[in-house]
Specification:
Cathepsin B, Chain A, 272 residues, alpha+beta, two-stranded antiparallel sheet, 50% helix, single chain
């Protein structure tokens, strides 16, 4: 990705530019906006794993680095501007591209993750810090599939840092352990009705309590914080159509379909 970003800079700076300054400024503005938009709304999202089903998809789908590389090339071609200013702007965008490429590793260095542990409750790996729910949920998923792994082992594989785990980082960890055991990772359909109809458990689900939910039960009784992402594992169904959920913060719970409608927003994985 570093080479691709550098090639993008050479391409935009050497060929894909216009002698008219307005066009270069427009192109530069567009790629800067695209870089920011990608980082906020698209970076690290699970849907990229459908396109590139690799443990390195978190790197290969990092288009922010490519956008910033294009911007560096166009910044160098800005007309009627002193060389030192063009060089400075191009260097800033080049460093932004490089930082974007290596961010998964930089984030761990800047925000070191908790060490983790190996604590279990009723077949559910219990998170040992608020930031490690995803590695713990991954350990629970593998435990239900007969594969022994701990929260502590999953933390570095999922690129977890002190602020938590991005979804593609979680996919990376699950993909790596699945590959080691000759298993496949399947991204589930985002439709809740299909998830329930498939009745194919266990499934790791990325969940979150939205800010606009009027039902105070989730915040007041369950302790959910609106807007904070969480990971759980749906382990199966109960005779009365409930869902058995392994929540790394508390252990085994019983959810209803209505709970999933509120808390689940389409991201999930299973191991086949």
């Amino acid at each position: 990705m570093s080479c691709v970003s550098a090639a993008a800079a050479l391409l935009s700076g050497g060929y894909l530019y216009s002698a008219k300054g307005q066009r270069v400024i427009l192109l530069l503005t567009l790629v800067v906006v695209a870089t920011v938009y990608f980082l906020i709304y698209a970076s690290g999202q699970l849907f990229w794993a459908r396109i590139i089903p690799s443990s390195a998809s978190i790197v290969y789908t990092n288009l922010a680095a490519v956008f910033a590389g294009l911007g560096a090339g166009w910044a160098w071609q800005l007309p009627k501007m002193p060389t030192w200013r063009r060089a400075g702007l191009a260097s800033v965008l080049g460093m932004t591209s490089l930082a974007a490429v290596f961010w998964p590793l930089l984030s761990i260095a800047l925000r070191p993750p908790p060490v983790g542990c190996d604590v279990w409750k009723g077949g559910v790996a219990i998170q040992t810090s608020w930031a490690t729910c995803s590695p713990a949920a991954a350990a629970t998923l593998f435990h239900a599939e007969g594969i022994k792994v701990s929260e502590r082992e999953m933390i570095p594989l999922c690129l977890t840092d002190r602020s938590g785990t991005i979804t593609l980082g979680l996919y990376r960890g699950i993909k790596m352990i699945a590959d080691q055991n000759d298993r496949q990772v399947q991204i589930v359909d985002p439709d809740l009705a299909k998830l329930l109809d498939d009745n194919d458990w266990p499934v790791l689900l990325a969940v979150q309590l939205p800010h606009d939910v009027d039902d105070r039960r989730y915040a007041d009784q369950w302790g959910w914080i609106p807007g904070m992402g969480h990971s759980v594992v749906a382990l199966g169904r109960t005779p009365d159509s409930g869902i058995i959920v392994g929540d790394p913060s508390v252990g085994v719970e019983r959810w209803t379909e209505a709970d999933l409608k509120v808390l689940w927003h389409g991201d999930g994985m299973r191991v086949k």
